[in-house]
User: Which sequence fits this backbone?
């Protein structure tokens, strides 16, 4: 089995699984309980919180500045709706985002448009943010939400420059970045990113599914520019009510600890495998690699002319080679060309013939060789003549 679909999900690491099992067996108390079992569970959560703070370059973070969620989708929803709901409507509010955002951002924005918000989507041709578009449209912006790494093309967006421009035009704007695909794949910290709100997810970095986090800048909390969207017992400093997923959070912290300790070596290895794959695919007839100007070490988007992406995906799957035909986070079965790939500059036909290859630090050149052979066979057997 060869797994090249790590942007959809990763295999939980042995260390994270062991931590999860240990906490489930020994620290199963409710972290809101005041007895020893509750305090032990709370301690596991705080250990994970400190580890994530460290990974974001934050040395003295406090509880309310990092809230645990059920994953990237909830983190993005809290960030966007929490900011929007904190405002008193005037009727001329602008929200800036990008063309081709993840559905957990885009679908929220579509609902806000129906409520009367003016949502403007920044062009991302060739994987670059159109900074001039931002400069021309940022006046009156209350929220800018720009993904850091595009989940389909691997493009790394210069969100720091984009946020700086937004703040020049609208000093009170809140800036959010979906970092689910960049966290532990691209080196960044809170300062270098320039975001007020940062969304991350555990299962993209060898943690457990069902766990995520949202970093919130203390100034946003102080000025009350975010409010909860869930109401209940007031957990996570009243910003995300509901009993915490202690097992998942502890595993999240362990996964972060493992990656953060070896981040430079892991990024270098994935970049090496990515370069090897790109070089190999350039020798396969009918295949083109869609290369952003600046790209992450772990995502490769490939177009195989004349072969539907689903057809190629199933062909590779029959050989136990697993890739993706796009984001795995949409499950409604609707078939349409990827907005993200079309924003990148592909035609609808090209987007419909593209697959995503996404890496982890354990992938090897031998696995890449098997991928080349399988894609080459597919192009010979399946491409429309």
Assistant:
């Amino acid at each position: 089995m060869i797994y090249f679909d790590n942007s959809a999900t990763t295999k939980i690491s042995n260390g994270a699984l062991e931590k999860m099992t240990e906490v489930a067996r020994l620290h199963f108390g409710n972290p809101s309980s005041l007895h020893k079992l509750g305090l032990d569970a709370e301690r596991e959560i705080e250990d994970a919180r400190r580890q994530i703070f460290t990974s974001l370059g934050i040395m003295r973070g406090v509880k309310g500045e990092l809230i645990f969620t059920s994953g990237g989708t909830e983190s993005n929803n809290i960030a966007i709706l929490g900011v929007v709901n904190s405002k008193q409507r005037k009727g001329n509010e602008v929200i800036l985002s990008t063309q081709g955002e993840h559905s957990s951002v885009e679908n929220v924005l579509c609902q806000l448009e129906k409520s009367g918000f003016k949502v403007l989507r920044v062009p991302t041709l060739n994987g670059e943010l159109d900074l001039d578009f931002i400069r021309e449209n940022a006046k009156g912006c209350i929220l800018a939400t720009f993904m850091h790494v595009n989940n389909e093309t691997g493009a790394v967006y210069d969100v720091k420059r984009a946020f700086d421009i937004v703040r020049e035009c609208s000093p009170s704007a809140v800036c959010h970045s979906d970092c689910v695909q960049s966290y532990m794949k691209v080196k960044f910290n809170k300062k270098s990113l320039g975001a007020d709100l940062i969304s991350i997810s555990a299962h993209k970095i060898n943690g457990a599914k069902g766990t995520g986090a949202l970093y919130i800048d203390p100034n946003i909390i102080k000025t009350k520019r975010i409010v909860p969207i869930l109401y209940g017992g007031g957990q996570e400093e009243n910003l995300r009510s509901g009993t915490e997923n202690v097992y998942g959070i502890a595993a999240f912290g362990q996964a972060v600890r493992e990656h953060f300790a070896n981040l430079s070596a892991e990024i270098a290895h994935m970049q090496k495998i990515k370069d090897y794959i790109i070089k190999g695919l350039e020798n396969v007839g009918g295949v083109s690699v869609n290369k952003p100007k600046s790209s992450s070490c772990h995502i490769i988007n490939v177009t195989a002319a004349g072969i539907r992406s689903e057809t190629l995906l199933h062909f590779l799957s029959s050989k136990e080679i697993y890739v993706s035909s796009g984001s795995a986070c949409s499950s409604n079965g609707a078939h349409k060309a990827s907005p993200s790939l079309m924003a990148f500059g592909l035609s609808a036909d090209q987007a419909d013939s593209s697959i995503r290859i996404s890496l982890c630090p354990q992938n090897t050149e031998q696995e890449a060789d098997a991928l080349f052979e399988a894609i080459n066979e597919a192009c010979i057997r399946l491409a429309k003549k």
Observations:
- Residues 14-261 form a domain with the Aspartate Aminotransferase; domain 2 fold (CATH 3.40.640.10).
- The first strand starts at residue 2 and ends at 3.
- The radius of gyration is 21 Å.
